[in-house]
Amino acid sequence: MWGGIPSEIGALTRMRVLRLYSNTFTGRIPDTIKSMTNMTEIRLSQNYFSGDIPQWLWSFTKLSNLQLDKNSFTGSYPGTLSPSITNLQLDCNYLNGTSLPVLPPNRNFTDKTWDVDENCFPTQPQASKPNQCRFAASNMLCDQFLANYANGVACPICPENQEPNNSTLCTCKPKGPAQHSKTNSAAVIAGVVGALAGVLIVVGIILGLLWKRKKDRAKLVGRFDKNLAEELYDPNWQAPHGVHRYKLSELSNATGGFDEAHEIGVGGFGKVFVGNFKDGRTLAIKRASGLVSSTQGLAEFRNEVLLLSRLHHRNLVRLEGFCDESGLEILVYEFMRQGNLHAHLFSSKKSLSWYNRLEIAVGVAHGLEYLHSYADPPVIHRDVKPSNILLDDNLTAKVADFGISRATDELATHVSTRPAGTAGYFDPQYFIRQQLTTASDVYGYGVVLLELVTGQRAIDRERTAEFNLVEWARPRFAEGGIEAIADRKLGDDYPKDVFQAMAELGLECSLFDKDQRPSMKEVVSVLEPHLSNCVKPPPSHDYSSTWESMESDFPTRGSNTSFTAASTSSNYDHMTSGSDGLKMSSSLIPKPAPPLPR
After folding, report:
1. Alpha carbon distances (Å) from 224 to 220, 236, 285, 421
2. Is 286 one of the annotated binding-site residues?
3. Alpha carbons 457 and 467: distance in angstroms, whole number
4. pTM across the whole model
5. Which residues pair with 2 in a beta bridge?
6. Domain 2-179 in this protein, CATH class
């Protein structure tokens, strides 16, 4: 799991135990958690949380187990800990306060654990009557301190290289530079030698990875294990009707041997290349990162191809073919020349018109409705966001990246095997239920709808008022209506009643409680009448007709265009997650050709 903890979690005021340890969560601890005062255990260890540890966290009267170790917290300790805390783990952070916490007086601290290894404090802990109080810092910036009280009267002897700082509070401080012993110099030398050894090890690992990457790439370009290819490849297996079974040589020729110059994106499934074929067709070629190593794995891939071949809708990116030769998993899709919605919303100099935005919102809703209600089995996308919404030459929206998928007994549906969602669009209830439903896609769609209305990003750290779009829009819309949140690029040239309805629907779709969200079928029933009743602006004002060709880096067949992967993978995201921009030109991309003969 990754991303930040959603602020909506604060609504769970009856929660007693929160365990999110051993993940890759980032960001700060949300302030909304301060309302969850019934917590007895909070374990956020081994993540990437940062910022100060909230002061209110120390005052939870029922909290006994607090584990925040192995993160990137900064700042200092509070004045006094809550007497309810019996296990405190704060080691391996960047805490550097002026003092360690005061242990409450007149308390029996038998069997209590306080661990702040790998932090740095200029003074040492204050204690009244502990049976065991351990602060053993393992880096050279901190001094070791061990206090064992027999009767709570006398202060312990300060460690070597320290001197008394306050005899009343029993604290110690480092001695002056002149009194440092030779052991410190030896420790510094040992540390430098260890650091150099660590650098050499890291360099060796990097070189090894580069060598492996080069070897793997050579293998994927054409030098495959012939025994594996003969074992897995079954020429008698019949491809689904309407889906072309490509030979590896065809795809290799179309992409220049899967050259980096043809690479247009990287996602959870693998890399995406633009392929230019001899018949003039341009297609998107999506290649899995690894190789199939068993007949079972190949059978699963073929089942996925069969599933995707059944999904036909004008608002879904069309599967054109596949390749299962030599242990590879490659999917071939139609190529969407106008890129993704994210680029048009946030990276384009020209703004989408209000009509284009409404039309895109309706198109995406139709695509998701089809996946949820008409696909057999139903498909849960799990990563609905603007970069997974592609646009054709007419700016018709098509949902992408809804396969590869796997069956789940829990839902009796197909769910993408990619990592579960993107920060800002991810269903917050998944943290609690650990269950995906169609309502998870509805939440992501609601955020996309708000982006279309506001022109704001789902997560924007520069939006100081509130970097989460849902939390930014909800109070402003409640106070000032649509004019308080509408995209300023639209000016006054938009139907306010329609955008008012779009905003209301977006906020309803992004409610924390999944049972209060509408279904995609209900979303379509709300938006479709608005589109039907609206008059499309004249061509001179229509975004699709005035959209200027964007500069392109895409190579065409036989061209000598100088081209690097850096200029594309960061600027175009085709059926992948991670890229935001768009640089394309219809003059450099071949025009559509007749369908490939079957």
Report:
1. 7, 21, 19, 33
2. yes
3. 9
4. 0.55
5. 24
6. alpha beta
